[in-house]
Amino acid sequence: MNRAELDKDPREVAGMFDDVAQRYDLTNDVLSAGQVRIWRAASRRALDAGPGDRVLDLAAGTGTSSSELADRGVDVVSCDFSTGMLSVGKRRRPDLAFVAGDATALPFADESFDAVTISYGLRNVVDHAAALREMLRVTRPGGRLVVTEFSTPTWAPWRAAYRLFLTGVLPRLARLSSSNNPAYGYLAESIEDWPDQAGVSDVVRAAGWTDVQHRNLSGGIVAVHRARRPE
What we know:
By secondary structure, this protein is of the alpha/beta class. It has nine helices and seven strands; from the N terminus they run H-H-H-E-H-E-H-E-E-H-E-H-H-H-E-E. Helix 6 links the parallel strand 4 (113-119) and strand 5. Helix 2 runs antiparallel to helix 7 (156-177).
């Protein structure tokens, strides 16, 4: 089974997600105790996309978030570099547009979208800054960015409990539901290695986005970052 390392070689990361594709959504529900659905709704509200908006859902995986947007009349394109994930998504929602693509070299024209969203995917990209610049390129002036990512709990006792969960509880839960348990070792390591809310905001701002802000969910376990492309 594939297991990526923190150097985030794109082939290793894609292969790892190919391995977990069949049970990916089930495992997310189990590991988050259903919170992932609440986090997804918060991301959707932050995106504020409606009928007539064209949205790029990057690192879309099996298209779960894309499906919810499409059901609300959004013209959504699901993009991921894991062909295994895309294959599962196409079987579930053949009506959606699924595109294989690398976040650091997106296969879309300049200013193609009203908004771009990426959930739990920026952390897995080998060059975060390059990916954010690519997202800027394909977004129209004034368009929106929403980055939802695991983050750093703000209350010290909660932060300590969360770290205990990542290192001790998560691997055991993953064995019950995942087809590739080693992948969830990478998950824990990549979360611990990821910058906090302020650090992510700095990276987004440095890539050229403006009006950068964030909202903590579940005490900071997840943060939803919002920004705009300058007019």
